[in-house]
């Protein structure tokens, strides 16, 4: 298994490099190759989760061993949290590729589309695997540059403008992250995350660290579209082709924004009260304001984009609350419950928001519009889309027995047990708001009188699109099993454990 | 462009091209390396295109060729890196050749090879980008 | 040494401000180019010849790209009238700048001043010529110790080329 | 002192990106921010009286400046080139659609 870790980066990179060469000569090569690559990665990560007993694998690139306990090469670290993120990235990526077969027919340059998609997945895999700070920056740039191009894939006015806005904010974020990394290198003289954690714990000075932490939170907050920095998200996510919106909303903001925040602030920096408070406040703002902004939207994909901000707020609240409880020496069980709720909501959100964007794509494919006012009565003509989007809407608004209910329940119970009653009340309130705007979506899109006046009859979408949607719809139900003991230990618990034993990460890697 | 400009550019870009190659091949000995040299090589081609101009059909053909070159070059870099998993230290990106004497031209294991292919990749990538801009301006923004 | 560096950076700041406020886009680009070339001098002063070479060629190529784009376009920036709000804005900008610079200053107080850097991770890189066989230590770091980063970097250039081809293709939908 | 001036250069670039209304000016602002970060990194690795990190024969026991920030900056320069190319591609396309680089005349979308 040890040597297989690097395959998560090599395989998508290799397919991305092969597609422009061979794809010109063999029709459908690009689709087959990207599908096979992602299928292979899915099996690989499932194999690790079910047989590896979640031991932490450290892969030293180019075989450079540490000298006097100072790592000199780049380390790749596959532990519970990375495996959790890898599972999300590759499985959603697989379904999205399958969906794109039919959807992307109306665009030209399919070779470039699959190349960029593979590059984006390679970048995200690299980000979640790496144990080196500068390497994280490099792979993050691969993922975001590919996503800039993918957002502008339709090359119409809206797409170009959204992509430019996304590039401006994303560029500022990248430079802030680079500045933070350089300051950190100045302070600690090393780039390995475990080693940085070790060095920082021996230094008494905290002013520098606080400054760096704030810069990094701003940078990754822009990448993850937390509320004061969210301006790019609704445009970018609604303008991209639907499979890409599904990747961006479902996976990208988690892998490069939220994951980086979690990893850096749990495992690299020592947790401090100020940072925990900042993260919780940002999460609360995102949750409430994102939800309120979503109600007023009539463009279907913009509604979903704002709801992404709101749902990511739940994740960040879970994470921040865990930090707050840990730092105030609260009950460790409650802290781990909050973190588990956050991570559980992360995987759930990947599934149902991915599915909802695919539904929006299917509606756009069939009717040619994204405006909710011009839809209506689609339930009769599009049974698959209608039923899957119903299941996703129920899941996202937290109706039992769908998965969204359990993750929200975990977060709320943890908030009550940790005596953050205001947070618990807000979480319940936002859940009700979510239900309201998804009922609006359901009503206007599927159950009103038919208002659609296009030329052709509305038909159900082709098989590949329907297949992806059905699989995700079923996953919405099946994932609720993750909460029960027996299954929880395979996927969720190892990830939570990594975060709970905050400093264990560094000592495990540098071996002190 | 006038004849003087064309002749002068022809001579100059030969020199730039050779200097680029020198920087690429001596990347492990003197300042510079695959990136600087690759940009110089691309620059020599860009100079030629700027001075002589060319009709769009020719440019489009060159664009396809340079983008294929680019993909193949970076694929070779990846393959060179993967070979490390089976040779020598059995790790990705491992330096598995004989090192040789420090300071000789043929030394430093795989590093010169990396330099050459990275230089090729950078040169063709920049040329592709430039040609894409030029073709776009010629076809659309007349 | 540090004073010379400070003078050059001050010059760069002035160049940058001029570049951002120039009326004509072409002169803005040229001013930006001058800032870039001053950076080359800084690199040479700071004993980084590799970077000087790379920066000088990359800056030239970037300038060629940008001038090629701007040359046949409307270059004039739209004129804005100076209003009372302009002074308020300048005041706010200056205040924010002072606050940020002050916090930056307090943050870096405890760190090593210019020229007294010590190495931890890089100690091995400096003695590493025998381990990589490369006389140029930067190349040794780039392709051997941290070759994985360099692969990523080449991939980014590949991504950008594919991205530019994608964005500049003539027809978007069939 | 040099560090603070460098940070001011960063802020000048940031100011340009956030307040300028011209697409090309925004790209220039990005370049300036990039320059300042590169300079910052290289200054961190500088050691007084040390040599450039290249071995030349007959040079024994000399001190070298830190090669790691230089390698990082080399990577970052190429990344900056890539982002600039993407920004320019989008800008030229927008210019075709609207006939201007001015952002105040280009807003269909609102955040």
Structure explained in plain terms:
The complex is a heterotetramer of chains A (512), B (142), C (174) and D (111). Helices cover 74% and strands 2% of the residues of chain A. Chain A is mainly α. Chain A is globular and about 70 Å long. Chain B has helices spanning 3-25, 34-52, 56-83, 111-140. With 142 residues, chain B is mostly helical. Chain B has 4 helices and no strands. Chain B has one domain. Chain D is an all-alpha fold. Chain D has a single domain (2-46, 65-105), classed as Orthogonal Bundle (Helix Hairpins). The longest helix of chain D is centred in the last third of the chain and has 32 residues, at 67-98. The interface between C and D is large, with 78 and 74 residues.
The average pLDDT score of chain C comes to 85
The overall number of domains of chain C is 2
Query: What number is the mean pLDDT of chain D?
Result: 85
Contiguous runs where pLDDT drops below 50 for at least 5 residues of chain C? none
In total, the number of strands of chain C is 0
Compute the CA-based radius of gyration of chain C.
22 Å
* Count, helices of chain D: 3
**Can you count the beta strands of chain D?**
0
Considering DSSP H and I runs of 4 or more, what fraction of the residues of chain C is helical? over 70%
Order of helices and strands of chain D: HHH
Q: What are the salient characteristics of this protein?
A:
heterotetramer; C: 174 residues; mainly alpha; 72% helix; extended; D: 111 residues; Helix Hairpins
State the gist of this model:
The complex is a heterotetramer of chains A (512), B (142), C (174) and D (111). With 512 residues, chain A is mainly alpha-helical. Chain A has a domain at 272-503.
Give the SSE layout.
The complex is a heterotetramer of chains A (512), B (142), C (174) and D (111).
Chain B: H1 3-25, H2 34-52, H3 56-83, H4 111-140
Chain C: H1 2-21, H2 25-45, H3 49-70, H4 84-108, H5 123-126, H6 129-132, H7 137-145, H8 147-167
Chain D: H1 2-19, H2 23-45, H3 67-98
Helix pairs in contact in D: 1-2, 2-3
């Amino acid at each position: 298994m040890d040597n297989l870790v690097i395959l998560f980066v090599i395989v998508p990179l290799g397919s991305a490099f092969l597609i422009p060469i061979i794809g010109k000569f063999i029709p459908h090569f690009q689709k087959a190759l990207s599908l096979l690559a992602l299928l292979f990665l899915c099996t690989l990560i499932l194999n690790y989760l079910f047989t590896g007993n979640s031991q932490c694998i450290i892969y030293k690139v180019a075989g450079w061993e540490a000298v006097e306990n100072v790592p000199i090469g780049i380390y790749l670290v596959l532990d519970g949290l990375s495996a959790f993120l890898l599972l999300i990235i590759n499985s959603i990526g697989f379904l999205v590729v399958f969906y794109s077969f039919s959807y992307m027919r109306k665009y030209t340059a399919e070779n470039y589309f699959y190349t960029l998609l593979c590059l984006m997945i390679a970048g995200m895999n690299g980000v979640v695997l790496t144990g080196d700070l500068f390497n994280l920056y490099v792979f993050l740039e691969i993922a975001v540059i590919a996503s800039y191009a993918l957002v502008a894939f339709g090359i119409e006015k809206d797409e170009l403008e959204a992509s430019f806005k996304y590039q401006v904010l994303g560029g500022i974020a990248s430079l802030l992250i680079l500045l933070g990394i350089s300051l950190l290198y100045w302070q600690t003289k090393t780039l390995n995350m475990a080693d940085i954690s070790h060095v920082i714990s021996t230094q008494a000075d905290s002013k520098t660290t606080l400054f760096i932490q704030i810069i990094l939170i701003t940078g990754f907050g822009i990448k993850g579209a937390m509320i004061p920095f969210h301006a790019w998200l609704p445009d970018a996510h609604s303008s991209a082709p639907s499979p890409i919106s599904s990747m961006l909303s479902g996976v990208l903001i988690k892998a490069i924004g939220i994951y980086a925040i979690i990893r850096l602030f749990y495992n690299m920096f020592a947790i401090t009260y100020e940072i925990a408070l900042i993260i919780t406040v940002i999460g609360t703002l995102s949750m409430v304001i994102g939800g309120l902004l979503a109600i007023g939207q009539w463009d279907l994909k913009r509604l979903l984009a704002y709801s992404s901000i709101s749902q990511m707020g739940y994740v960040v609240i879970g994470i921040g609350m865990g930090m707050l409880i840990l730092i105030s020496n609260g009950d460790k069980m409650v802290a781990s419950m909050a973190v588990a709720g956050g991570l559980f909501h992360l995987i759930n959100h990947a599934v149902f928001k991915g599915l909802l964007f695919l539904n929006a794509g299917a509606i756009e494919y069939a009717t040619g519009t994204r405006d909710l006012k011009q839809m209506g009565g689609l339930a009769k003509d599009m049974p698959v889309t209608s039923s899957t989007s119903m299941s996703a809407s129920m899941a996202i608004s937290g109706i039992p027995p769908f998965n969204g209910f359990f993750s929200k329940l975990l977060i709320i119970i943890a908030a009550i047990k940790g005596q953050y009653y205001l947070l618990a009340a807000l979480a319940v309130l936002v859940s009700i708001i979510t239900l309201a705007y998804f009922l609006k979506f359901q009503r206007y899109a599927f159950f009103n009188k038919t208002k659609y006046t296009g030329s052709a009859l509305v038909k159900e979408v082709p098989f590949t699109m329907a297949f992806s949607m059905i699989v995700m719809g079923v996953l919405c139900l099946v994932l609720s099993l993750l909460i029960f003991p027996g299954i929880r230990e395979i996927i969720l618990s190892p990830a939570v454990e990594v975060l709970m034993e905050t400093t264990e990460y560094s000592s495990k890697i540098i071996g002190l | 462009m006038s004849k003087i400009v064309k002749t002068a550019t022809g001579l100059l870009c030969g020199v730039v091209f050779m200097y680029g190659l020198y920087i690429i091949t001596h990347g492990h000995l003197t300042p510079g390396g695959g990136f600087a040299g690759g940009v110089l090589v691309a620059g020599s081609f860009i100079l030629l295109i700027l001075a002589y101009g060319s009709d769009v059909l020719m440019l489009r053909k060159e664009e396809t060729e340079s983008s294929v070159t680019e993909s193949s070059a970076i694929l070779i870099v990846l393959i060179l890196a993967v070979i490390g998993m089976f040779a020598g230290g059995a790790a990705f990106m491992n330096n598995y050749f004989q090192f040789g004497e420090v300071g000789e031209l043929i030394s430093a294991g795989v590093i010169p090879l990396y330099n050459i292919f990275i230089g090729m990749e950078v040169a063709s990538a920049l040329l592709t980008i430039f040609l894409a801009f030029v073709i776009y301006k010629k076809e659309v923004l007349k | 040494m540090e004073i010379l560096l400070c003078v050059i950076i001050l010059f760069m700041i002035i160049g940058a401000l001029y570049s951002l406020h120039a009326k004509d886009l072409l002169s803005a680009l040229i001013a930006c180019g001058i800032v870039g070339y001053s950076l080359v001098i800084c690199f040479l002063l700071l004993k980084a010849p590799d970077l000087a070479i790379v920066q000088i060629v990359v800056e030239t190529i970037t300038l060629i790209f940008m001038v090629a784009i701007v040359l046949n376009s409307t270059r004039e920036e739209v004129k804005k009238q100076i209003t009372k709000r302009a002074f308020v804005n300048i005041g706010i900008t200056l205040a924010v700048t002072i606050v940020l610079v002050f916090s930056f200053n307090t943050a870096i107080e405890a760190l090593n001043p210019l020229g007294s850097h010590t190495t931890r991770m890089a100690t091995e890189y400096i003695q590493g010529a025998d381990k990589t066989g490369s006389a140029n230590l930067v190349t040794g770091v780039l392709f051997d110790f941290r070759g994985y980063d360099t692969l990523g970097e080449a991939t980014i250039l590949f991504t950008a080329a594919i991205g530019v081809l994608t964005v500049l293709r003539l027809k978007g939908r069939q | 002192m040099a560090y603070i001036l460098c940070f001011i250069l960063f802020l000048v670039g940031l100011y340009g990106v956030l307040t300028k209304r011209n697409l090309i000016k925004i790209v220039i602002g990005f370049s300036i921010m990039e320059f300042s970060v590169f300079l910052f990194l290289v200054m961190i690795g500088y050691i007084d009286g040390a040599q450039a990190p290249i071995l030349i024969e007959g040079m024994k026991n000399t001190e070298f400046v830190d090669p790691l920030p230089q390698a990082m900056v080399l990577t970052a320069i190429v990344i900056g080139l890539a982002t600039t190319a993407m920004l320019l591609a989008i800008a030229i396309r927008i210019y075709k659609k609207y006939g201007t680089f001015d952002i105040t005349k280009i807003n269909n979308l609102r955040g």
